[in-house]
Design brief:
The chain is α/β, with parallel strands linked by helices. The protein has 17 helices and eleven strands. Bound molecules: magnesium ion.
Length: about 400
């Protein structure tokens, strides 16, 4: 029986993780949860009876206690999330807290030598060097839950590292793959949230629409697989069936395919290295019939090149890219910005940072540049960036 801790249990990945636990009751059990949405968390506590639960704010502690009446240890804040992440009895931690808030608990889990299934790519983008080093030094292990990296992880089992030529990340292209470029300034929040193949949280849906998501995934792959950015390519694949590929030196390309359901990569991370029959909807390729692939149009998706540049410069640049993007997306979702201003703001913040790029050698370094970039991105005048 593997004991599971979930950081972000009320979000999309967290709920899918619990669905996987439900499907493998003989193999998996929940020991700790951390989340922000108290009503749903109270239901989860009643159902899964974890040892420890962490909430965001002190005031939520009492509220959760009243809602659950359960004998459960309730902690809160960053320290609470870190306690859940490093709980002695947990065998595997699923990290699905959105944004920079996920950095301290993932670090705590790796420091405690845990196996961590990382769904929060921002952790690796902003603090990848620290996370991989901490894992190495403490016997921790990172398993990617992001579907593309999970596919790469699987495809890498087909050969030795010296035999790998390149990683090919697939991208759906999002909702604006074919939209007339001259109308990008008129894109509404609703249109940007309407992802054609995946059902996801708001932030990642907007990132998919700008394709910043794929740019962040290039940086994520660079850290996870110790691969130079010029050996990580992106291919648009609108059906989202091939989740990514690895090309070997002999010309063979290994791909991983499944339905567009996060439960597959979550199951892989929870049960690794085992493969067990599960109940989730299987792929019927005869029904799908056509798989398309096309190159990325960098004029349409300028976020991709920005992310490659940040990855090549390394150090604090990816943390700044990530934080500036997070704020720009928040501002777009709040109705403050046009769609095209998201990437414009990120680009300006990167420009301001380009002469002071420094190494990220601790969680504090990552959080310092994260905060700096957030303030910069908040301060950029909307009037300058809004489409007339
Ligand atoms: Mg992904």
């Amino acid at each position: 029986m593997k004991r599971v801790a979930i950081l972000g249990s009320t979000g999309s990945v967290g709920r899918n993780t619990l669905a996987v636990v439900d499907a493998f009751r003989d193999e998996l059990t929940v020991v700790a949860l951390a989340a922000g949405y108290i009503d749903l968390l109270a239901q989860q506590v009643a159902q899964y009876r974890p040892e420890v639960v962490s909430v965001r704010e002190l005031r939520d502690v009492e509220r959760l206690r009243q809602l659950t009446h359960a004998e459960v240890d309730i902690v809160h804040g960053d320290a609470g999330a870190c306690a859940v992440a490093s709980l002695g009895s947990a065998d595997v931690v699923i990290a699905a807290i959105v944004g920079a808030a996920g950095i301290p608990p993932v670090h705590a889990a790796l420091k405690a030598g845990k196996r961590v299934g990382i769904a929060n790519k921002e952790v690796l983008v902003a603090a990848g060097d620290v996370m991989t080093k901490t894992a190495r030094e403490n016997g921790g292990e990172i398993l990617p839950v992001d579907s593309e990296h999970n596919a790469v992880h699987q495809a890498l089992r087909c050969g030795g590292r010296e035999e790998v030529l390149r990683i090919i990340l697939t991208a759906s292209g999002g909702p604006f793959l074919k939209r007339d470029l001259s109308t990008f300034g008129d894109i509404t929040i609703e249109a940007a949230l309407a992802h054609p193949t995946w059902r996801m949280g708001n932030k990642i849906s907007i990132d998919s629409a700008t394709m910043m998501n794929k740019g962040l995934e290039v940086i994520e792959a660079h850290h996870l697989f110790a691969m130079a950015p010029d050996r990580i390519d992106i291919l648009i694949h609108p059906q989202s069936i091939v989740h990514s590929m690895v090309e070997y030196v002999d010309g063979s390309i290994m791909a991983q395919l499944s339905t567009t359901d996060m439960k597959f990569p979550i199951q892989y991370a929870l049960l690794y290295p085992d493969r067990i029959t599960g109940p989730f909807a299987r792929l019927d390729l005869a029904k799908i019939r056509t798989l398309e692939f096309l190159p990325v149009d960098s004029h349409r998706f300028p976020a991709v090149e920005l992310a490659y540049q940040a990855c090549r410069s390394g150090g604090s640049m990816p943390a700044v890219l990530n934080a500036a993007n997070e704020v720009a997306v928040e501002r777009f979702l709040a109705g403050e910005l046009s769609f095209t201003s998201i990437v414009e703001i990120v680009s300006r913040v990167l420009g301001r940072h380009s002469r002071e790029v420094s190494a990220i050698s601790s969680v504090d370094d990552a959080l310092h540049w994260d905060t700096w970039a957030r303030n910069e991105a908040r301060g950029i005048d909307v009037a300058l960036t809004r489409k007339p």
